[in-house]
Design a protein that fits this description.
Layout (H helix, E strand, L loop, with lengths): L4 E7 L2 E7 L5 E11 L2 H14 L9 H10 L4 E9 L2 E11 L10 H14 L11 H20 L1 H13 L13 H5 L3 H14 L1 E8 L3 H13 L20 E7 L4 E8 L6 H16 L4 H9 L5 E7 L4 E8 L4 H16 L5 H15 L6 H14 L5 H9 L3 H10 L1 E10 L4
Helix pairs in contact: 1-4, 1-7, 3-8, 9-12, 9-15, 10-11, 11-15, 12-14
Length: 426
């Protein structure tokens, strides 16, 4: 059972979140800057955390920073970018040995909090107030490689293209790491400007997970944030759209296996009951090794190499993707729709429903396995403004009925189809 989430405001648009987890020997602190997802700013914002991790005023280069981390018994500094609903989340985190295991009796929590605070709020600027050019060049190449990696993973690429069709004119359609051309145009000056804007306008979410004392870290961040000049922008909750006109597209690429992706709008499930029914539907339909898509489209009819579906809580959509022979596109697409219609008519047994819910419950049981997953669970709830524990979620999933699953399937409407086929790149 996960510890209780405690949430406290530590400044205007700034919050300290903590979960005490005694079973771990280390603690994790993450500082997240939550900002509206905008195409024009997404790429430069995505570069910010990766350059921040190169150093700060107290550790002005990567060598000194690594030495500091080594002195902290091998503390791990990390950075990443997430996308949730209409929000882009810029994150820098540090995981470190808990105070109980510090050989010299050091206050590891305070040391880690101060270092993370320095890294995010006291960058290693040059004499012009910009990020060092060498750090920009190295991390920009890293960001470009990350963006281009989607093209190398054809499954990820196809899903991205399908989502682009559905959310073409919506913030959710913006890629979390941005775009290659925009990355190439970033300068030290534009990057520094983006950092200043993020610090000034973002909602700040500090997250502490582990056996240590979050009050120590909270005081460090509260003091630092109080010294900042901020005008936080209060973003609106993500608005889920009921339905949208069907969009279809296909591309040719030098591949041997086709990628078919179908995106369904789920009728704007707004209540938790509706969302949970959609989650169970998606798992029953194509989210397990005994799902309808797996057992029928793949095993019985041999129309695909794999078939999977998953429900996106943040956007209220269900994504179905499969790998197929090029000539099976029409048959596979028709049968995928047919299987959904059968579920809507109640073509599933009580045992299938029970096994499906059991699979979801098992996955929820692993949330507390790592500090990273504990943070991820609660941060999703914070951004969605619906904080629950995995135990509460298990109870809600277990209460989903067959009729609710059927109703969720009835509401599903195809919004986009993308097919990646073989041939010359087009």
């Amino acid at each position: 059972m996960l510890g209780e989430l405690k949430r406290k405001q530590i400044g205007e648009g700034a919050f300290m979140n903590s979960v005490i987890e005694p079973k771990f020997k280390s603690d994790r602190i993450s500082l997240c800057l939550v900002t509206p997802l905008e195409k024009e700013k997404a790429t430069v914002n995505a570069l910010v955390p990766f350059v921040l991790r190169k150093g700060c005023k107290s550790c002005p280069d990567f060598t000194k920073l690594n030495k500091k981390l080594a002195e902290m018994y091998g503390a791990i500094l990390d950075a990443d970018v997430a996308k949730h609903g209409d929000s882009q989340i810029i994150e820098v985190s540090i995981q470190f040995t808990d105070d109980r295991f510090a050989i010299g009796g050091e206050n590891m929590t305070e040391t880690a909090a101060k270092l993370l605070s320095d890294i995010v709020f006291e960058p290693n600027f040059d004499e012009n107030g910009y990020f060092p050019e060498i750090d920009l060049e190295l991390e920009r190449e890293f960001l470009i490689d990350t963006i281009e990696s989607d093209l190398n993973d054809k499954r990820v690429y196809a899903i991205g293209k399908a989502l682009g069709l559905v959310f073409e004119n919506e913030p959710f359609g913006v890629k979390r790491y941005g775009y290659v051309d925009d990355a190439k145009a970033i300068t030290s000056e534009s990057l520094a400007k983006a950092w200043r804007e993020l610090v000034e306008t973002s909602r700040i979410e500090v997250f502490f997970a582990g056996p240590g004392d979050p009050e120590i870290a909270g005081k460090v961040f509260e003091e630092r944030i109080s010294s900042l000049e901020r005008k936080p922008v209060h973003s609106k909750p993500f608005e889920i759209i009921d339905y949208s006109p069907l969009k279809e597209a296909e591309e040719s690429m030098d591949i041997v296996q086709g990628k078919l992706v179908m995106v369904f709008r789920m009728g704007a499930p707004k209540t938790e009951k509706e969302k949970n029914a959609a989650r169970v539907l998606s798992a029953l339909y194509g989210g397990t090794a005994f799902s309808k898509l797996f057992m029928n489209v793949r095993e019985k009819m041999s129309l695909c190499y794999y078939a999977d579906s998953h429900f996106e809580r943040g956007s209220g959509i269900m994504i179905v993707d499969c790998g197929i022979e090029f000539e099976n596109r029409e048959k596979a697409q028709a049968e995928i729709i047919n299987q959904l219609e059968l579920v809507a008519k109640g073509d599933f047994t009580d045992d299938e429903l029970s096994d499906t819910k059991g699979a979801i419950l098992n996955s929820l049981g692993s949330v507390g396995d790592t500090l990273y997953s504990v943070e991820g669970w609660y941060m999703s709830g914070i951004v969605e403004e619906n904080i629950t524990t995995p135990e509460e979620d298990k109870k809600a999933i277990d209460e989903v009925t067959g009729k609710e699953v059927m109703k969720a399937a009835e509401k599903a409407k195809l919004a986009a189809v993308f097919f990646l086929k073989g041939g010359e790149n087009k």
